[in-house]
Structure formats: structure tokens, C-alpha cells
Amino acid sequence: MSIAKSTLFNSMSGSLANIIVYEVNGKIRMRSKPKGYKKSDSPEQNSQKSKFRGASLFFRNIGMPMRLSWQESVRGTDLSGYNLFIKENIHNFTPEGEAEDFAKLKISYGPLYIPDNIAMVHTTPDTVTLRWDASCPGDSDTSDLLYLAVYDRNEKRNYKIYGIEQETVKRKAGEYTFKLPAGIKNEVHLFAFFKKQYENIYSDSRFIGTI
Fold it and tell me: Which residues make beta-bridge pairs with 209?
């Protein structure tokens, strides 16, 4: 960008060849026209677009309170919960827009501690027992509440991620037995996370396993 001082440009505006002339605060300025736009359609760019679409669709299918955990994590910042989810998860989607590794997916997000290993025992076709380390370093607390979520998929791109209704289970219990929701016909993926008892502060999710 340049500023024209010659009287030749005093009343001039518009464009001249590849130069755009315009006025700002009484001064005549010039800048070059932007180069022509070329549509992004390389294999790498298309792959990234598909990953983005897959992550975006996944976020839209997340229910509460998982969605709230992302919104609370960006409070006071310029980010949205949606943008944070994409940032944290896009690398784990395939060029076809499918989730690649459920163990690496984050369906909830936050600073609370969650054990790396939560053991799952599938005792009957619809009954599951979870066991975890009840200790909690850092700012977490043994009164933090356990939350469970299911990724339930009927067919390609037709799925939902929803919380399982449960009694109030605290971290200090170290164990919880529950029944899977009625009506599940296909295999489902289970996730667990914790929430502060009286605040909307969450942990990242942990993938428990597939049933």
C-alpha cells in the first residue's frame, strides 16, 4: 500500500490496471489488486476438508453434559466450544471423515484428573462393572461425580453420543455397576469422565471399551 501526494490523484478513485485507488481520512491511497482465487482441490486439501467435516458432524451429535464441558472450557476466551473440539480431535479422523481411534477421541474436556486405566468387566449381556483408582492428585476431589457416555451407531453417519442415566456415583467409590440402555442393537463404545459435584468443571473423557 502506498500514499499518493501528487495533485494528479486528488479527485481520483477506482482502479487503474492492477492498482486500486481509494481515499482514507482525506488521503489518497493505492494498493495492488489481489491475485485471482484458485479453488483448493488438491488431494491433501480435500483430505483435510473431509476430516473437518467428520469432526464437525461428531461434535453436532454429542449430547449434554459433554457439550457443556467444551463450552465451559473456553469461557473467557475468544474460542468456541466447537472450535476447541475440532482443534483437539480433527487429527483423529480419517480422510473419509470417520473416527479412527476411539481411545484417542475426547468427547468431554477439562482440567479434572481422570485415571489412565479404568477397568471394565462385562458381567452379563447388559451389565457392566467399572473399577478405577479412587485417589485424585491436583485440584480434583474424591467427591467428583462419575459420568458415562455411549457412542451408539446404527449405520454410517447415523449415530449419537449420549449420557447414561445413573445414580450419583462419586470418585471415592472406585467401582460402579450399571446396565446398558435398553434398545441397543449394535456394538457400542463406552466413555467415562468426571465432573465437580457443585461446579461445571469436567475432566477429559476416557475410552472404556467396546461392547
Answer: 190
Query: Under DSSP, is residue 61 helix (H, G, I), strand (E, B) or coil?
Result: coil
**Best CA proximity match to 120, nearest among 191, 202, 205, 173:** 191
Tell me the per-residue pLDDT of 55-111, one tens digit each, with 9 for 90 and over: 999 999 898 899 999 999 999 999 999 999 999 999 999 888 888 899 999 999 999
Q: Name the nearest CA neighbour of 26 among 41, 47, 11.
A: 11
Instruction: Decide: 209 and 191 in contact? Cβ < 8 Å.
Output: no
The pTM is what?
A: 0.75
Residue 106 grid cell: 475426547
Interatomic CA distance for residues 170 and 134, integer angstroms: 9
Contact call for residues 73 and 81 (beta carbons, < 8 A): yes
CB half-sphere exposure, 9, CA atoms < 13 A? 20
Alpha-carbon 53 to chain mean position: 12
Residues in the chain, pLDDT under 50: 2, 9, 37
| Nearest of 88, 85, 97, 82 to residue 52 by alpha carbon | 97
Q: Where are the domains of the chain?
A: 2-32, 43-210
- Residue 143: alpha-carbon gap to chain centroid: 26
Q: How far apart are CA 161 and CA 87, in angstroms?
A: 19
Q: Provide CATH code, domain 43-210.
A: 2.60.40.10
Contact 170, 194 (CB under 8 A): no
